[in-house]
Amino acid sequence: MRAGGAELAVFHPDDAANRGGPLLVWAHGWGQTHAALLPLAESMRAAAPSMLIDFPGFGESPLPPTPWGTADYADAVADWLANEAPARRIWIAHSFGCRVGLQLAARHPQTVAGLFLVAAAGLPRYRSPIARARLNARRWAFRLMRSLTPEGPARDRLRERFGSADYRQAGALRPILIKTVGEDLSESARAVRCPTVLVYGDHDRETPPEIGQRLKELIQESQLYVLRGFDHWNVLTEGRHQLLQRLGEFVERLS
Fold first, then answer.
1. 153's torsion region: left (phi>0), alpha (psi -120 to 50) or beta?
2. Positive or negative CA dihedral for 73, 39, 224, 113?
3. What pLDDT was estimated at residue 135?
4. Closest by CA position to 254, among listed 194, 200, 198
């Protein structure tokens, strides 16, 4: 399916027919595909129909025509949904997909009736003055050494040494990662007017729960749940039963 100038792969675990209640739209995190959320969507089949997407550049969706930011992804999703049957939609997302969801709800508020955001990114992480100084020194060293190193094996070794796991593995998506990872979506979060649920694992080191606390303060109608014993990734798997309980309550509330 073409939307916003890019191809968007959409998956239907059931007939996705609106049965009078909300339609669940599932959006994956960075480096993943719709498959990461498919078990959760299938578990919700009795409660509501679902559609899952692969963002452009992930899974079965080709790269977008230019390095997109999250606003571009949100605009493409809005373009796609504008051509779908009218429905009350709940955007269910993990990590990077939450960034897009915040932009979608802020830029196209008529598109979604609610946000259910798991391990949401979108705000700069809190760091102590010492940690910020160390991070800035590391970035300065990387940029200096990169400027002195031609493209090739030597620069690849620099990326291995200084880059995050996402940066090292991004490949053709690296320009998009660079553009999106530093976005501060505070203003977008402040503009969200639909009911929002924020869920974090208390062991999450990628998107710590303190990000969720700040998002809760920015989003008017929001609830925050911190699940004990889960991190950024296993909150989707080992924590699925608690996620599904919270999601089921949210879907019932918006039905």
1. alpha
2. positive
3. 47
4. 194
Cα(229)–Cα(223) distance, integer angstroms: 19
Q: Give the 3-state secondary structure of 85-110.
A: CCCCEEEEEECHHHHHHHHHHHHCCC
CB-based contact 19:49 (threshold 8 Å): yes
pTM of the model: 0.85
- Say if CB 27 and CB 61 are below 8 A apart: no
The type of residue at 86 is P
4 band by pLDDT with thresholds 50, 70 and 90: confident
What pLDDT, on the 0 to 100 scale, is given for residue 185? 97
